[in-house]
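INFO batch 0412 | record 1 of 1 | parsing
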Amino acid sequence: MILYVYRWKNEYLPLLEHVKEIAVPYLQLLQNPRFFCEIRNKGVGVYGVLPAVSAGFHDQLLRELALKEGRLDEMSFFKPIEKSPDFRPRELSDVMDGIYIGNQGQWEAAMKLGLPVFGDQSLNVFNSKTAEFWREKGLERVTFSYELETEQLRELSFKGEGEILLYGRVPVMVSEYCPVAGERGISKKDCGACRDGGPWYLRSKKGDVYPVLLDRNVCRSTLLSGLVLDRRKERARAGKKGNQSLGNIRWRLCVSDESPGQIERILTSL
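INFO prediction complete | emitting tokens
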């Protein structure tokens, strides 16, 4: 089971005894290297996640990392945020076990980082041919589209590893518009909501609630789905049939606005 968090919070620490891998936004790993290395030392794999829309700041940083071949001690970005003088990671591999790419344009740079590279859900992998394409390009694991049913997954035939969402909200839109600044009636340059931490939500006319994630580095907002995708019963039914197994599929649990208690109950029920 992979615990995929849209924003890491220290209150998630007790959940690590139930999982072997966590996926965290890559900048949170770079800004807190010692903390996440301590998690790795406990036997939990830690993976960085690049954003699906990375134009601007994130692409520039990724290109610089690629030019330095993952050498953090040569990065002008990394040096100001070193908070632990007794812990100075030199390479990305000192901080994370691998990295997820969020779009095709990140592939070439990511392959130069000296890390295992995985494909996130935003690559839109719907079938075995696409999975094989990315495997041949060097990706060690791909995340299949959230739109695939479990039975469709069971019909896939590919040589590499796949990943699929078991439970959680999915991103439905990335926007340059800041809904919090809009609600406050001010310019997003003067808003500062992304520094307040949130949580933030949009409510539809039908009453559906959509969590909003804010990226302070590029002032973009990501809207998550109003409904939670839950495949637990579907997975259990498929397992009882006793036919073709899902092979090299790993299951992902996405954490957005759920409490640690909710997530722990889900993990212990599997």
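INFO post-check: The chain has two domains: 2-169+228-269, 174-223.
INFO record closed
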